[in-house]
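Weekend entry, working from home. Most of the wet-lab plans are on hold until the incubator is repaired, so I used the time to fold the two sequences that have been sitting in the queue since the last round of cloning. Logging both here for the record. First:
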Amino acid sequence: MQFESFVEAHQALLLGAFLIALVMGAVVNKTNFCTMGAVSDFVNMGDTGRLRAWLFAIAVAVLGVSVLEYVGLVNPDEAFPPYRGSLLLLAENVLGGLMFGVGMTLASGCGNKTLIRIGGGNLKSIVVFAIIAVIAYFMINPFPGSDQTLMSVLFYDWIRPLSVDMGAHQDLGTVLAGEENAVMGRLVIGLLLGVALLVFTLKSSDFRGNRDHLLGGLVVGLAVLGAWYVSSNIFIDADGEVVSLSEYYEQWDMLADSDEGKPAAGRPLSPQSYTFINPMGQTFGYFSSGLQSSLLTFGVVAVFGVVLGSLLYALISRSFRIEWFSSLADVRNHVVGAVLMGFGGVLGMGCTIGQAITGVSTLAIGSLLTFGAIFLGSALTMKVQYYKMVYESEATFHKALITALVDLRLLPSGLRQLEAI
């Protein structure tokens, strides 16, 4: 897609991101596609339906990105955020993922589900959104009158030195096939991983027979793939030289006649797909600035699109319901969960969509680590909650946690503190 001006090209990017997110929001609401629900169903009931839908979405995204990158139609190497960056942010991926997994369980849903619930009338999710947005914003942006961020104050000095320099890109294709053969390596590994996930998900007759699970996984996977394609294929004809949005931004003084239509930053113009924690922070910045158009990004319109898509479906299906906190304990859980998601989502560089689907579609090792940590954090939290509910005062946090780790086969059975139920 080639345009004559930056403004037209940027508008096309925003419109594409919004429309795809709109469809995704409606379908996710209809099908009850929910990553936290997937963990809950699997851990508490042994039901793999929604987990398979999640993995089906990953399979679609991985297969699509692997093929399209090989033929030159998507460019994850230049992605925002930099999933394949040379630094493997080991501690950040693991700690951020664990925090996010615990947080999404306490707050009744991940970042995407929070937006879906807002569209469906859930006022609790507006509170969750606001807390995540403020934390995510100040994790990256300095406090007023300061050059310090939450990241620099609380984390950077001790956690960034724990990163591992991979030398080149830290994706499976580069690591296993070498930098010179990285593209072919990504294609082969992506096809193998994608097909393996498809076989696993589709071998279940229950999953194949559930149209909502199939539709939800397919649409979410295609939405992630579609956003990669759109954001990688918008170009500007700058006096005969065809450049991308980010390249035009870098040469703005030479190519543009004025600053009219210039975004506040260039990184959000890079190839990207859906993630929802950092974009919530971007949305906070957009509103707190008085709706400055220069702060309208792919992420901001994606947030709007998901909420509106969910709202439209809720109105059409007559499922729109106003919901508020049921107790002070409910308030506490949602607030703590939102805080953990805000910190964890930025530390881990994504959420159950942004890392577990979008990031994994690039085969980034950090994304795989974050995905695993999110799953573990959520599963442990559910197990601990379960044992504390059943055993009440007898189940201290320590006993419940040790027993949960035994249940998940992360500790030997001899360390069990509470009887299994």
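Second, folded right after the first finished:
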Amino acid sequence: MLVEEVPSSKTPPAPLDRFIIGSRIMECPRLPSLSSVNGALRELLSADQSYTSQIAEIISRDPSLTSRLLRLVGSVYHGLNAPVNNIEEAVFYIGLSQIRQLAMITPVIEDFQKMAGRTQFPWRGFWQHCIGTAIMTREVVNAVKAPLDEADYVAGLVHDVGKIVMAATFPDHFAEIHRRARVGVKQLRLIEVEVLGMDHTELGALYLRHQSLPEILVETARFHHSPERARKHRHVIAAVQIADLLVSHAGIGENGNYVRPLAGAWSQTAGWNYLFPTRDEAVQNAAMATLERSLARLPTLLEGLI
């Protein structure tokens, strides 16, 4: 639905020179969670033998992770006869795969929240969009081949980090961008370039590169709308493109772009053509059916996570 643009009482900020933007990004806070994501738990989860009691003991050291875990169990397993209040029991219900993802989500989202500060935006919906895209990225990758590590999940989680950097570093421009975006007639990236002088994909890539983070995260931030332009990691970036569109079309969370993708838009993308090059209709339909089932479960899962 289109909304009427409300005139701003303030003079809109002028676009900035690229050199100034780059300089300001260098002053932006770090995301320590992306350099070391819950190391003790990650090491234990990757061990040949993992014991529920050991995992529960490590989780109990982190109140935020504990709270998120118990909320997740309560949300996903709401039909249980009695609420789960014990960490070890919660670990049993959730399983190692989701525990590993929780261990990554919790510190990253907390860092995101600190960086965003008090900037006005529906942040809870945005965190849901980021986590939802991470979960669906893993589902898309799984439809093609078994992932070797968690890089695809983390890439999906941080794909829109440029929007957080923009809110933290250029709050007046960010506010003006989203005032205009709410009209719902123009793509967000076009408005970002008009108002700030750079869109969130380039901003995010500059930030992640300055933080010396892995190239797969830098490339994902930069090319998740155009994976065909990426030099490396194209299969992960293609999966993020598809996941982003699926989550956005389903109206799960908020990403600040009020122009919602049309149904089936993901199957017309460079990412879809790269991951599913065969035109065999049965193969494509099977992949899409799997993704739709995962997408249908997503709102309940996200309610327990954020």
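Plan for Monday: verify the second prediction. Residues 281-305 form the longest helix (25 residues).
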